[in-house]
Design a protein that fits this description.
This protein has 8 helices and 2 strands; from the N terminus they run H-H-E-E-H-H-H-H-H-H. With 183 residues, the chain is mostly helical.
Length: 183
């Protein structure tokens, strides 16, 4: 059905669905179809345990390995995060967050951490989009991202790791708050 509707072959459809399943975004039910996977607080909290460790590694590595151009770009992104916090601009925040995530991965220069983070970021982003209007403190989240960006720009590995921990503490609190927001 998707092949006919989209006008492309079955093989690319099958490969795309298999990738989405590997990323835990869909569940393939043999001979019955495909469903979008559940957005679950418990799963998200377990994801955050792993994300904290890998994201801390990425932040430290980016602070150590970033080029001068990447450091300048980090400063620019920090300013954009701060602007989105001042204006409570959630769409602006989400745009700069995507750029920031990609720049961190590029600056870290670790393809294994990058692969792991991309998977976790897609799952975390889906959870965020689903719940952020109910429970998130977007201005604080943007400020904490700016702190990481500034630490990376300075080459401060410890500061980048500490700022990452503060961000993930907030994300964990946000995740738990979605339970009470749903009731």
């Amino acid at each position: 059905m998707l092949s006919r509707r989209l006008g492309i072959g079955r093989t690319p459809i099958r490969e795309a669905l298999q990738r989405l399943a590997r990323e835990s975004l869909v569940v393939i039910l043999p001979r019955r179809g495909v469903i979008v996977s559940e957005i679950n607080v418990g799963t998200q909290l377990r994801l955050l345990e792993t994300r904290r460790e890998v994201e801390r590694l990425v932040a430290r590595s980016a602070a150590r390995r970033a080029t001068p151009a990447e450091r300048r770009r980090m400063d620019e992104l920090a300013e954009r995060f701060e602007r989105s916090a001042r204006n409570n601009d959630d769409k602006g925040f989400m745009r700069v967050d995507r750029e920031f995530n990609e720049l961190c991965l590029a600056a870290a220069k670790n393809e294994f951490a990058s692969g792991a983070m991309r998977l976790m970021q897609s799952l975390s982003r889906r959870f965020w989009y689903h719940h952020y209007k109910e429970a998130a403190d977007m201005p604080e989240t943007a400020k904490l991202h700016a702190d990481i960006a500034r630490a990376v720009a300075r080459g401060d590995e410890r500061g980048a790791a500490a700022a990452t921990d503060r961000l993930l503490d907030l994300v964990k609190s946000f995740t738990r708050a979605t339970v009470s927001a749903d009731t």
